[in-house]
Amino acid sequence: MKYLKAFFILFSIAIVLIIVCNVWVSQETEQYIFTNSQTVASRPTGLVLGTSKRVRDGNENLFFKYRIAAAAQLFQEGKIKHLILSGDNSSRYYNEPSDMKNALMLLGIPENAMTLDYAGQNTFQSVVRCHQLYNRDSVIVISQAFHGARAVFIARHYKFPFIAYAAQDVPWQASIQTRFREYLARPKAILDIYLLQKEETVFDNESE
Hints:
Layout (H helix, E strand, L loop, with lengths): L1 H28 L3 E2 L10 E5 L12 H15 L5 E5 L9 H11 L7 E4 L5 H10 L6 E6 H13 L5 E5 L8 H21 L12
């Protein structure tokens, strides 16, 4: 009984911490997340955060589709001049940056307007590498709103003046798993930047 009580207390504390971290990220970044392309300020660079182009059953990943559409839209409206496509390329068979480039070229984005970051294996790495490795300061992060908020939270912690443009959201029934992961990803992001101070470790694992 004693152990059950201790477990319940620890579990309750963990739930509270997760909620606090999620609210913190949302409140800190709300003013930097834009859902209308007409109201987002023009910036030289768009940072597209990678994801798989297919889901496990082989169907099209709507997160990928909508991020690509949002990136193409901002480029064609003149809101951005260049795109950094940052994603996972941890094996020869999996290459998010190249998949994004190919999809954007089909939408008319010229190849020379894109830089591929093959070592953006997570949001933290994508954000820090965009600023530190590619020397981009004035950036629009392009992803779904909940994801863009975490990216902007990380960026603003390091004084990178990033903003985010929210790609079309994916219906709940097709995104429950992703949204659940995001609830846990926000506390991890806070842990990374405030306790683990991972900024110095992001320049490993270059691929392609």
